[in-house]
Amino acid sequence: MDQQLIEKVMKQVTDELGIKQETCEKESKSGNRCNGIGLTEFVGTAMGDTIGLVIASVDPMLSDVMKLGKYRSIGIIGGRVGAGPQIWAVDDAVKATNTEIISVELPRDTKGGAGHGSLIYIGADDVSDARRAVEIALQSIPKYFGDVYGNDAGHLEFQYTARASYCLEKALGAPIGKAFGMTCAGPAAIGTVLADIAVKAANVEVVGYCSPSNGTSYSNEVILTFTGDSGAVRQAVKAAIEAGKKMLGALGEEPKSTTTPYI
């Protein structure tokens, strides 16, 4: 297939998905970059050194060892900084597309910091669905970096949704359709206190508790996840945000939001 025909097909696909050039330019200014590197596998990038990719048809020799199940078309979200923003963003994506979460892995990374990176596989029967899911996730990531705070001493991460979906279920055990929240901090000592503050602040039910040698990739952080009434979950997260900024601030400069807080 010659290059002109490839470009024509790609244009048809992007037009069908409603991806316009002006949208690409807008995303570029917000930290996303569109497919300008000349590879059909490349979708774009976002904050946290996050890249979005697709494979239209995974080689049969790989599909079994990758445990892809029935899917051959996959979307891939991978980031070096952050796990919560990527997970919450992909949760948005699967709500809006005909896709399924295959796996979520949280490698120890953060470019040498205290926490995790992320690797998420999204399965689809049609590659256009996989690509659309990746696009939606990349667009959502800046929002979910809004309540990630940091300074030279460490980081704080807080997430909330009124209705959890399949990515949160796969990654963190969230009950589908219910409000779900997360507190996370490194150093782990701060995360421990934030977990206690969150459950004391509102009537929530603990879903998971991860510490450096129990549930994380030996990262220096503590992560608490919880569910309950939407108002209670939000209240618990907000109480932890206020306390966490004070504690991490005692170790260095005032922790700053990466974008704009949304909780």
From TrEMBL:
InterPro entries: BMC_CP, BMC_dom, CcmK-like_sf, EutL_PduB, PduB. This is Microcompartment protein PduB. GO terms for molecular function: structural molecule activity. The lineage of its organism: Bacteria, Bacillati, Bacillota, Clostridia, Eubacteriales. Coiled coil: none annotated. One of its GO terms (cellular component) is bacterial microcompartment. Residues 41-144, 147-255 form the BMC circularly permuted domain. It is found in: Bacterial microcompartment. Keywords: Bacterial microcompartment. It comes from Clostridium cadaveris.
